[in-house]
Write a structure and sequence with these properties.
Elements: H1 3-14, H2 20-32, H3 34-50, H4 56-85
Helix pairs in contact: 2-3, 2-4, 3-4
Keywords: Membrane, Transmembrane, Transmembrane helix
Organism: Labedella endophytica
Transmembrane segments: 20-40, 60-86
Length: 87
Amino acid sequence: MSIGQSNLQNDIAKLDEPGIGLALIGLVLSVVIPPLGLIVSVSSYRTAKRSGGPGTVAWWGIWIGAIFTAMLAFVMIASLIGGLLAR
């Protein structure tokens, strides 16, 4: 077995982590629809931790979802205040 083949097997084994599919969905949703992505990522992180997995992808989904949700909330509040002040 060569080193490249061993690395490939390690990468494939990482894709078999518990909840990795849901974590990837949460990560993508964290960019597209941040509040929903945050919820899905938290759920997949809890699933990964219960089953003994690292939950790294879900952790990134949580951070990205939280930051983008905060930015979205800021923009919505700023536009609401700007609309009220423009009257």
